[in-house]
Amino acid sequence: xxxxxxxxxxxxxxxxxxxxxxxxxxxxxxxxxxxxxxxxxxxxxxxxxxxxxxxxxxxxxxxxxxxxxxxxxx
Length: 74
Prior knowledge:
Layout: H1 6-22, H2 30-51, E1 54-58, E2 61-65
Antiparallel strand pairs: 1-2
């Protein structure tokens, strides 16, 4: 297996987040349009979280730490 490059992995997710943010909306209307926009917003959040995660290797596992709030409650 090839060596895993976590920084390249995270960069791919950051690049995907930018691509989602910059892509246009196809010519769809009504509920399909609302669903497309909601999906794009969720994709952006997901890709951004992974792209910005802190990481470590613990017991042979890649551990990603994602900030989920202001840090005061957990």
